[in-house]
Amino acid sequence: MPADERPLLKICNLDVRLNAKPVLKHINLSICNGQITSIVGPNGAGKTTLMKAVAGVLRPVSGAITFRGIPIHTLPVHAIVRCGLVYVPEGMGVFPDMSVRENLEIGAYCARAETDARMDFVSGIFPVLADKRSRLAKTLSGGQKRMLVIGRALMSGARLLLLDDPFLGLAPRDVRRLCDTLKQIRRNGITLFLAGQHVRRILQVATRAFLIEDGRITLSGSGQQLLGHPHLRRCLYGIATQSPGALLAEAGFPQPAGSGLDPRPLFPQSERD
Amino acid sequence: MLSAVVVSALATGSFYTLVALGFALIYGVTRNFNLAHGELLVLAGYTAYWLWKTWALPFVFTFPVAIVASMAVCLALQRLFARLSEPLELNSIVFSFGIAILIQNAMRLCFSGNYRLIRIPTLNHGAGFNALPVSYGQLTLLGLSLGAIALLYLFMYHTYPGKALRATIQNREAAALAGINVAAMGILAFAIGGFFIGLAGPLFGCIHYLYPATGPEATLLAVTLTIFAGVGRLGGIILAGWLLALAESITVLYIGSSWREMIPAALLLGLLALKPRGIFSDDGR
Q1: Full-model pTM
Q2: How far apart are CA B205 and CA A47, in angstroms?
Q3: Per-residue pLDDT tens for A54-112?
């Protein structure tokens, strides 16, 4: 196995419950250094829960998460950030009554000595933020707030960025720009883990991708492979056959066994990991 | 006459701000709604009274002792508050209500129910400005309150821990995800809150009679100002303090002193009905 193919993040048999209801079931997944990894799936499949569990916001019932060889599933959120794993939740979670500059400074809270160098790096990636550095964050547009949140995450010196639905609510032009920016971030040696509803966009930028359904990984492969896979199309777009079970599942009802979906992955995980 | 009213309102309002800041900071950072705030303040007042009366300590030297004592009490309380589970607001109200009753009764036991006042005659003397009728007491209130507020401002806006506190007030989840230890910020908030309570307590004992059941007055004041300014908007509290004191002074002047205590309560009710997120909020209904 080549050196840069070593997993940066490894998730083993992860089980997570929300209000005593199992949401993630035996998730096995690993993310390689320097790649963009994407996870797609229907609403409520567990994408956000997975990211929150990795970031330490939710505690798993069982299983292990190791990041750069360190078991992080027992660490508090801020300690995980210090290890270099930063989660950017969906939405525009800025500090509204602080200036853009202060928002970025807070991002470097755990590495204050490097604030200035990181500020230059982030300004290079998001020039808009440099222009508006003294504006209050609440006066920014939606796209700029999203940039600020991602910029803040970069300020911490992240090695792995978890971006939950980074394109949500952005204008198409901003989505294209953000895609280019994500590739630029990756070229700077930062590994990305994306989740979201913009399936085509998210899979196109991905080196490696997963489909999650009802708390289980059901497909894995390269982004292009997943994009062309009939099961993914059936699952996400309801093309060809939309069984009553899948409709019920989409509406939030428990999915009965044998709902007409083929659960077999095309590229079984054991072959890849 | 009017200038006297304004000077008195400025001094009293600055003191009100001092009373409210500890509460506002603790609530903003930890979402613990500390109903025992007033009791803690009166306890600091009693500490100063006891030192001044029994040990004949000069009044100035009661401040450091009261500050250290109330920071210690606040940090001890923080350990208990930290054990509460969600919903934090509700649970902390019930919990701190119990603590308030406990402290009230402890104070009745230790200091009896008699009215006490820290009498410093020089504080009532005029400071000798011909144009402005201002007493040394009012100058002390103004100086200490504004000094402490300025100190807090410098800390919150020009140091990293202060910025982290503001970040935690504005968005707890995002603060944690930015690498801020939110639990440690809670401890810091209680420590600073204790500092402000310890500073305000002895002053309270100078301008107001100390008795075990007077705590809720201070709590009401703190709650009113915090809601008036909007939770987490520490800058708004000083303006709120001055406005409230001015409203009180005008009421006393034109309607009668027996109506003074109606003002914060009426203001609180009006605010909750019309501007529940604070007078300076962007999204008032």
Answers
A1: 0.81
A2: 57
A3: 888 888 888 888 888 888 888 888 888 888 889 988 877 888 888 888 888 888 888 77
Nearest to A160 by CA among A56, A21, A49: A56
Residue found under tokens 């979201």: A196
What is the average per-residue pLDDT within B157-167? Answer: 90
When scoring B157, B159, B177, B283 by the number of chain A Cβ atoms within 10 A, the one with the most, hence best to mutate, is B177
Judge: A106–B178 Cβ closer than 8 Å, yes or no.
yes
Domain-wise residue ranges, chain B: 22-213
Domain that holds residue A128: 3-250
User: A62 lies in a domain?
Assistant: yes
B42 versus A170: the higher-pLDDT residue is: B42
Decide if A145 is inside a domain.
Answer: yes
- Give the CATH number of the domain where residue A148 resides: 3.40.50.300
Is residue A235 in some structural domain?
yes
**Do the Cβ atoms of B44 and B200 come closer than 8 Å?**
yes
Is the ipTM beyond the 0.85 threshold?
no
The answer to whether residue A164 sits within a structural domain is yes
Taking an 8 Å Cβ-Cβ cutoff, which residues of chain B contact chain A?
160, 163-164, 166-167, 170-171, 173-183, 232-233, 282
The answer to whether the beta carbons of residues B35 and B100 sit under 8 Å apart is yes
B247 or A238: which leads in pLDDT: B247
Cα distance from A217 to chain B (closest Cα, Å)?
Answer: 26
